[in-house]
Amino acid sequence: MRTTPHSLLIATALTLSLLGCNQTTPPGPTPVAVAPKAATPEVVKKLFPGPWTKEKTPVLVPSPEKANFDSRNVYNMATIVEDGEVVMLYRGESLSEEAGSMTGRFGLATSPDGMTFTRLPSNDSPGVVMEPTEPYESRGIEDPRLIKIDDQYIVTYTGYNGKMGQLCLATSKDLKTWEKHGPLFPDFQQADCPLVPNSPVGASKSGAILPERMTEGPYKGEYIMLFGDTHMHLAHSKDLVSWEPVQEPVLSPRWEKFDSLLVESGPPLLRTKDGILVIYNSAGHQTDPPAEASPEEKARLLFPQRKYAVGMALLDSKDPTKVIARTDQPILTVTEEWEEKGYVNNVVFAEGLVKVGERWLLHYGGADHVIGVAHAPFEADLLPDDSPFLSESGPKVSPTP
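^ thats the sequence. predicted structure below, dont judge the formating
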């Protein structure tokens, strides 16, 4: 998420906003008023996976050896199931570099159950599989989201040059050797949010791709992606490398709810029977800034009180610019000490979703320092009959349309 600086059962009865358009929020332009409708528990169960239970302890922590690339922080993970194992691509930062100016790099870890991970090639000497090589990522690479189409891995990630983060893309055949395709949206202007009142041209992050082509609607025959770390925008592509962004946001912050300050893409998108599932990250606040303050002053006052949480939304399966439903309560919040205190305090930030056995596993970063996991029952009835998640070994290869 950052370019700068007992198990908890999340069994809350979620309330859905059944939306025909976006909700925008103070302290910016006049908000679009959309009255949410309460949903019954039956509707919640029909549309979304859950409830989510967090494990009490992290599943990956920094390496004990100072010289290792991941000895200071491990977070920003992407996960996929390969040959019965959970493979995690994760961001590491080293104690051998000064705090605040260290460089993010990616390593690999594997697990038979998604709970106990072994670094590659070994826990004692973890290796780097992707590192900054280009000017646009000179200060680090961050925020991977990973999918596989046929025999090719595609990762979206943030390249940080010390001034701005840009959403980038790379491809690989083996997860170890990567071809970088550069920033995806160098000329795009993402929408401002309460925490970022003056987002610079070209700034973008966090690309969550639906790993199959759309079969209906305005983007038929194309891939889609949600991206952004202020609002969440849509982009579409015919080849997974060149992407066309859509200016109007799909999901926006909501001032009176848990996601009041920003929204940011989570794991890759997932097709369900009722739409396209979006698990997204957000930040909220507790105290409103003075109404008369400038947007910049409001952002300064809001920044230290931000607290992250994870929500869900459902997009229309034909037109993914339309939001069918959105949770009014988060599915994950900051509750554990290792989520409250770390390199960046008060953070839960989900980026990896896999199916292992009869459970969904949602891997997330805790306080930008360690990696945790939450799980929910796997309900086959949520998915269409042709979903790759219904195969015994999980979604190793995305279906070719």
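The chain has one domain: 8-385.
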